[in-house]
Amino acid sequence: MDRYIGIGEEEEVQLFYYFIKSERNPEQDPLLLWLSGGPGCSSISGLLYENGPLTVKREVYNGTLPSLISTSYSWTKVSSIIYLDQPVGTGFSYSRTQLVNKPSDSGEAKRITEFLQKWLGKHQEFLSNSLYVGGDSYSGMVVPALVQEISKGNYLCCKPPINLQGYVLGNPAAEVRNDYNHRIPYAHGMALISDELYESLKRICKGEYEVVDPHNTECLKLVDEYQKCIDQIFRAFILLSKCNKHSPDCYEYRYLLSTYWANDESVQMALQIIKDSIGEWIRCYREIPYTRDIKSSIPYHMNNSINGYPSLIFSGDHDMEVPFLGTQAWIRSLNYSITEDWRPWMIGDQIAGYTRTYANKMTFATIKGGGHTPEYKPEESSIMFQRWIDGQPL
Fold this sequence. Notes:
Keywords: Disulfide bond, Glycoprotein, Secreted, Signal
CATH class of the largest domain: Alpha Beta
GO molecular function: serine-type carboxypeptidase activity; sinapoyltransferase activity
Number of domains: 2
Largest sheet: 11 strands, mixed
Number of strands: 13
Helix content: 25-40%
Organism: Arabis alpina
Strand content: 15-25%
Structural class: alpha/beta
Number of helices: 12
CATH superfamily of the largest domain: Alpha/Beta hydrolase fold, catalytic domain
Radius of gyration: 21 Å
Shape: globular
CATH topology of the largest domain: Rossmann fold
């Protein structure tokens, strides 16, 4: 099976992916394209930690290959999933030539559309399956533009249309200023800062905490106070402590194990990685050359709503990276009427989170006790996804 799809006229960009068929009924079930955030985080993050059928066994590394074990909460129970390493330079994706143009948000929307067209061309048995695109974190900047791009492409001649049916995003970035400005009200709501500090911040900074006027020294001083309070908070999941990821007791140690796994020669042979195509495999390559040219994904959400695409937007309510308050604020700004108001959604007799639906077929859901990605509450995330993708209320 091919592991790469070549992009561009000369196919100089080689995008690597993992593909896993649905465990239920791959002929009928939807196809989900999953993107990890970053930009520059390998889609192995989704596959091994968030919503895939395998995970890395949590044990102290002793020089032997970390083992993979199966999970019970995979989204592949109800859909086939393509986990894509993008942009080029992420994970195992590479370029055969020196890149002329740096990858960018809008460029990725075009590249990934081309990837899908070529992938479906090679796997025509999936052409008629419903396609959804999804991701979390920084993917919130790319996925809405990608949905719009695929939709536009479907009206052009000569290529089989992509059967796009909607999109799903977890704790998605939407507009840096909006997302970050909501961290302070969130910290206050979670009792990480005092009422007094919050009231002063609101009054002196006027709700603008991300880009502070350098002349407003009083605001800068208050933001500094806030920073001291939250400095040792692990933002992606505020219940965890910050720790050294090389320590086996640290939550992030599990990511280190995937680095040992993906850099193993036998693993790379099994994955059919082109020899010497990349240097060291890095799970999240933070220095990736990349242009963030979409300043806000909100207009894309608006267009996709107008075009009738359903969406599921979910937030782990213990994430301070992209707090749910910011997500709720931009959803409100779309000005769609509420069709089903705020209510708990249940798993058995337990509250798993809260949800609300809008007239534009957008469902918003919180995952109670969840963090920045589905990995912190995998079972709840999986049940939420299964219900939504099957067209049931949460």
